[in-house]
Amino acid sequence: MDLSKTSYTCKNILPVIAGIFLLSLPFGQANAGSSTKSDTTIRISYCEFHTTHKFAVESVRAAYKRAGINAEFTSRPCRRSLIEANAGRFDGEVARISGVTRKYKHLVAAESPTINIEGVVITRSEKREITQWSDLKGLRIGIMRGELYAERGTSAFEVTVAADYSQLLKMLVKNRIDVAIGIRKDYELAVNSPDFLNEGLHIIGKPVFFAPLYHLVHKDQQDLLMKLNPVFEHMWNNGETAKIHENTMKLLTKSHSPDS
After folding, report:
1. Count of domains forming the chain
2. Cβ 177 vs Cβ 171: under 8 Å
3. Does one domain contain both 127 and 195?
4. Domain range holding 168?
5. What are phi and psi of 96, to 5 degrees?
6. Buried b (16+ CB within 10 A) or exposed e, 68-90
7. How far apart, in Å, are the Cα atoms of 51 and each of 35, 111, 200, 233?
8. Which of 83, 133, 175, 194 has its CB surrounded by the most CB atoms within 10 Å?
């Protein structure tokens, strides 16, 4: 008997037997080391200073839950939130205006919005009727850092930039600016603070900006949108998103009231 041939034959048969054994295993067992989206927690950043993003967090959270995807939300300074999501440090960013992906090219927007925003003009003493950006000419203007619509709309003017809404409104109270540009929801909550209740702050004219905001995911997580797009569309069209925002407003208003 030729032992060398027997040894050679065994060496060639063993890999074949091993392969057959692996193929016979159930798919989940054979791929025990791999993870799926349902096992993974998706990390989403949002702007820590924007009340609007607090509303968006709740509607985006609900969409992920409906899609069966785990998600957690982390606050960052407004522009930093976008930069870090674009760099892949987060899997997504909660919500931004259409077109932001032209600059932040690693982010992909959902097809349906998750919240609308209105950019309004706030003042203490200005009497001018303001209905468009050009009406701001000659005024001292304050805007919020990271609010892209306000940065674009006031690009032809000199502006003072505030870090949060409290600082923005305090500039009005102290007569450092004539008008402030802000998001209606954020202003309505901030102005109910004891610091501003009796300061005569109010909205003038018509909104100078209106736009829907869309949830963003990093391009490496783009397959998430296959599940999320129909969910966002359904929630938006059947009024569920609006209902979530109404409930969020009630909770935030209660927490901001002087008696809470």
Report:
1. 2
2. yes
3. yes
4. 117-210
5. -145, 170
6. ebebebebbbbeebbebbbeeeb
7. 35, 23, 21, 23
8. 133
Are 133 and 243 found together in one domain?
no
DSSP state of 138: T
Contact predicate 51/165, CB 8 Å? yes
What span, in angstroms and rounded, lies between the C-alpha atoms of 115 and 117?
A: 7
Whichever domain contains 93, its CATH number is 3.40.190.10
Q: Are 143 and 151 in contact (CB under 8 A)?
A: yes
Report the amino acid identity of residue 236.
W
| Strand, helix or coil for residue 152 | helix
Q: Which of these, 157, 165, 169, lies nearest to 198 by C-alpha position?
A: 169
Give the chain's length.
Answer: 260
Give the C-alpha separation, 216 to 97, whole Å: 10
Other CB atoms closer than 10 Å to residue 131's CB: what's the count? 12
Structure tokens at 220: 């490496």
218-260: pLDDT as tens digits: 999 999 999 999 999 999 999 999 999 999 988 887 765 555 4
Q: Largest Cα–Cα distance in the chain?
A: 109
Strand-pair category, 179-183 with 107-109 = unpaired
| Burial label, 6 (beta-carbon count in 10 A; 0-12, 13-18, 19+) | exposed
Do residues 215 and 107 lie in contact, with contact meaning Cβ atoms separated by under 8 Å? no
